[in-house]
Specification:
The protein is mainly alpha-helical. Helices cover about 70% and strands about 5% of the residues. Strands 1-2 form a two-stranded antiparallel ribbon. A two-stranded parallel ribbon has the order 3-4.
């Protein structure tokens, strides 16, 4: 079958998808809304529930109510969400990955994330399985301050790598400049550090917006990844010229993200019987 014969078939498929994807998105979203807890914060909890352990002692609190994600995931996903917004305004359609020097910084962020996460996990296992891992020493006593800062460093790196990759996939005409340079990295890192310090005040004025930004940052990352997967499957790489043309891939990504959240939420709820952290893990 030649290109001229396949063109009408692709056009028919596109027309079908223009109707099917919005209906699927509405159904997936409605199903997820139905099973998730009541209230705005309850819906945010259901997003965090699919990607985070949600252990109460390892989470920040608003009047003794934990945030949708633990301290580490809060830092990671709010910083990733803030980073994507930052890149959207600062980087435009720039599509080259950061320089090697900046990549080295991100590797250090990843190293800190891994070390603190591993140390924290071993500490948790020691608390929940007395005597089982006593022969493995902890480097230090883990705390939510380190979880927040190492998580947010990882979030900065995620956004900085994902953004140019998305641009490389989407646009017909590419801006072949680095999406992140040293000056922009310094500004973004400074902003994240300042926000982290505000989070540590435990003020509800700060924590309520962070609850939304971290949960919606999680959802945004899932939507973007699934949208890129959709574009690759549909063989639409480098065919877009305007953001307005992205509504169908983004809606498809949203549908797949909702189905993923719905599946994991239902499985975990069936397994644990609670929307809170994993039972028996309170360290």
């Amino acid at each position: 079958m030649n290109a001229m014969e396949t063109q009408p078939i692709r056009q028919k498929l596109q027309n079908i998808l223009r109707w099917f994807v919005p209906v699927a998105a509405a159904l997936a979203f409605a199903a997820w809304m139905y099973i998730s807890p009541e209230g705005a914060l309850g819906k945010l909890d259901a997003i965090g529930y699919a990607v985070c352990h949600r252990i109460d002692a390892r989470s920040f609190q608003i009047d003794e109510r934990q945030l949708p994600l633990c301290a580490r995931c809060t830092g990671e996903f709010y910083a990733a969400g803030a980073g994507l917004i930052f890149h959207l305004f600062v980087s435009g359609k720039k599509s080259r990955l950061p320089s090697r020097g900046i990549i080295v910084v991100f590797v250090l962020f990843l190293f800190a994330f891994g070390i603190d996460g591993s140390n924290s996990y071993i500490y948790l296992l020691k608390q929940t399985s007395r005597g089982a891992l006593d022969h493995i020493p902890n480097l230090y006593t883990p705390n939510n301050v380190l979880r927040l800062f190492t998580g947010s460093g990882m979030g900065i790196a995620l956004a900085a790598v994902l953004y140019p990759v998305v641009n490389q996939t989407l646009w017909r005409t590419l801006d072949d400049r680095p999406a992140l340079e040293w000056k922009s990295l310094g500004i973004l890192t400074g902003l994240i550090i300042a926000i982290n310090l505000l989070i540590l005040t435990d003020s509800p004025i700060v924590l309520y917006p962070i609850a939304y930004l971290s949960a919606l940052g999680t959802l945004s990352l899932l939507v973007i990844v699934f949208a890129i997967l959709w574009i690759m499957i549909m063989r639409q790489d480098n065919t877009f010229e305007s953001p307005r043309q992205l509504w169908l891939p983004l809606l498809a990504g949203f549908t797949l993200a909702m189905l993923m959240l719905l599946s994991i939420d239902l499985f975990r709820l069936q397994f644990t019987g609670t929307w809170s952290g994993f039972p028996g893990m309170s360290g």
